[in-house]
Amino acid sequence: SSDSTPIRATLFPGDGIGPEIADSVKQIFKAADVPIEWEEHYVGDQIDPRTQSFLTWESLESVRRNGVGLKGPMATPIGKGHRSLNLTLRKELNLYANVRPCYSLPGYKTRYDGVNLITIRENTEGEYSGLEHQVVRGVVESLKIITRQASLRVAEYAFHYAKTNGRGRVSAIHKANIMQKTDGLFLKCCREVAEKYPEIKYEEVVIDNCCMMLVKNPALFDVLVMPNLYGDIISDLCAGLIGGLGLTPSLNIGEGGIALAEAVHGSAPDIAGKNLANPTALLLSSVSMLRHLNFNDKADQIQSAILNTIAEGKYRTADLGGSSSTTDFTKAICDHL
Ligand code: NAD
Q: How far is the CA of 181 from the centre of ligand 1 (A)?
């Protein structure tokens, strides 16, 4: 696509603060003249038998048809007989990679400067395969599944991402010295893919050493690719390096090139409906979505406006120590476009 072809994208405003921060995205996209038409879908108030969850079949079809979407936080209703919303999305859309850009926000001081890395987490297998059972009383077993197919798929995504986003290095994070078969296969697949990308430097880092390096000097890393459990932990660790979940965007990649961007945080019921929410994480997720669509000029423009607004410090929401409302902060970003 180019910066002028209109594209339809699915929007799940979600629950709690979701609709407020989704409004912020819609306003800013309009102000920046982004050629995206939103197809809005809300979580239903009863279980759709076709998805066995509160997500409607139509909303999933919308993502499949458009190939791209943005999702606000969803509060999974408590009760029996339905699948979790996030699990339904992951399974139905086969979202196999979770991509989280993680960079220092200029002017927002944390313990670290110059963080600029991407974590890419395999999202379908590993310890999250749900295969746990009791062998005999007092002994339980959990199966960690690693397949060649899923490992190659996520490795391929990581190298392709590095290449198309001007990144120079991919680090595979593992514990293959202990998990010789499972992590060993994961590494083997990464190496195979690395050979197809001679221009990208490839390295393997043991997870414990990786954690130490990340907290000592996160600037050592560029793109990190890893199995499910390590990715779950490392991606939150990285979010902490730059100031927390309220600032961290993510992009889920599915089979057939589907991309569903989402903020990492939840529906924040404590501040919902009060015009207090920080829309930054959802906004930066929408920027990831734009980059996925190759709308790079628009992505740069919106990202700069967000970063400049935060750096200037005049308009910041309460979570960043300011006193601006969601709408004032949004307006300030529009003025910076
Ligand atoms: P949460 O992320 O909603 O809130 C944790 C704290 O962070 C709260 O104090 C909240 O006010 C604050 N916060 C979060 N996002 C913020 C933002 N954008 N701006 C300012 N402050 C923000 O986590 P929780 O309270 O554990 O979960 C609430 C609900 O969200 C639950 O129903 C949970 O299931 C759901 N949830 C959904 C997702 C998702 O859809 N991906 C992820 C996590 C939690």
A: 37
Low-confidence ranges of the chain (pLDDT < 50): 1-2
Name residues whose C-beta falls within 8 Å of residue 53's C-beta, 6 or more positions apart in sequence: 47, 82, 83, 84, 85, 88
pLDDT of residue 80: 63
Within a 10 A sphere around the Cβ of 66, how many other Cβ atoms? 19
- Return the amino acid letter for 203: E
Q: Which residue(s) pair with 252 in the sheet?
A: 98, 260
Question: Which residues lie closer than 8 Å to 96 by C-beta, 6 or more apart?
Answer: 122, 123, 124, 150, 153, 154, 157, 253, 254, 255
DSSP assignment of 27-76 equals HHHHHTT--EEEEE----SS-BTTTTBSS-HHHHHHHHHHSEEEE----P
Sign of CA dihedral 327, 9, 238, 113: negative
Burial class of 55 by CB neighbour count within 10 A (0 to 12, 13 to 18, 19+): buried
- Which ligand 1 atom minimizes the distance to the CA of 72? 40
Say if ligand 1 is within 6 A of residue 73 CB: yes
Cα 76 from Cα 134, distance rounded (Å):
28
Whether the predicted interface score ipTM is above 0.95? yes
225 pairs with which residues across the strands?
Answer: 120, 172
173 within ligand 1 shell (Cβ under 6 A): no
Question: Exposed/middle/buried for 294, CB within 10 Å: 0-12, 13-18, 19+?
Answer: middle
Q: What is the DSSP letter of 128?
A: G
Q: How far is CA 49 from CA 54, 55, 61, 83, 94, in A?
A: 9, 10, 15, 11, 19
β-bridge pairing 249-254 and 201-206: unpaired
For the entire predicted model, the pTM comes to 0.92
pLDDT digits (tens, 9 = 90+) for 217-263: 999 999 999 999 999 999 999 999 998 778 899 999 998 899 999 99
- DSSP annotation of 195 reads H
d(CA 95, CA 260): 8
